[in-house]
Write a structure and sequence with these properties.
about 210 residues; alpha+beta; 12 strands; about 20% helix
Length: about 210
Amino acid sequence: MKKIVLFLLIFPISLFAKFNSGEITFNDGSVKSGLIEVPKYKDTKIKFKQSNDAAVEKFKVEDVKGFQILNDKNETENYITLRVGNNKILNPKKFNIDEKKSFVKIVKQGKISVYLIHYEGNTTSGGNGGMTVNSYGADAYYLQRENDDFAFAIGLHRYDLNFMAGMNLYAVVEMNFKEICPEFVNKLKEADLKATEFSRIVDIYEENCGKK
């Protein structure tokens, strides 16, 4: 056990970071192809290597337009950089928007667009017998309206729960769309979507409000 701990101290966890084949597109139109580590929640840089044995390069989020990777299922995942935030609690028609952009995964784009940011979290539990730390994965979902240059939070899907946490999807959509297209709010409630079906939010909007 001591040898394992010593090994981890000498060789940082970052050495075991997962890189996928992909390419980065920069704001100036240039492209770099190689190996990419998908940025974590709130990361401000993306890590890139030309090959397995090459040195790691880091690029700032403000210099990147987007990137794509080939995941473990041999599927292409597309990401862009975008500012995200949420409706203000005391003034819900206004937003708290991050100053810097984030790396967001495209769920589906259209007249409105849905994105997500994946992150890892921890919960603690226990009592007299001691504390236990449990790790979990989660996807924070964001929605972008037509002509907005940002996306706002619409819910949090934790893999260890069977319900959405965080913002209430229908309440947020009603706050932000009731004056634009009230039919969208009603049809979305009727659909009663699971987190794995959030791409349908775009379809529902376009079916009911796309020509407005």
